[in-house]
Amino acid sequence: MAALAGRPGWQGFTRWLFHFPAVTAGYDALIAATLADMSVCRNSTAVPLLTGRANVSYFCTGGITWGGNHPGHVTSGWPYPLFRRVAGVLEAEAACSSPTPEGGIHG
Predict the structure, then answer these.
(1) Does the predicted TM-score (pTM) go above 0.70?
(2) Between 20 and 30 A from 92 (CA), which of 33, 52, 61, 107?
(3) Within a 10 A sphere around the Cβ of 105, how many other Cβ atoms?
């Protein structure tokens, strides 16, 4: 598709083609069947794997358009060792501030 996008006349051809309801319906069906493949945030997947660091970012255009994510929402990716460390801290914090059977709070 990238090679076609730069060819003269391609944009006009696709505009003309998508005026036909059957073409639009077929394309919509294809997109709907593959939404899960297109809604993964590249930055929140690749950056943690390549750098060993967490990544928090807004969804990209594809994640918003095809993934149905709200533009104001964020996504994050965590390398597993870092995730376990953060989860351990959060679990300990939750245990310290959880209600006691008597109605008080630990900690």
Answers:
(1) no
(2) 52
(3) 9
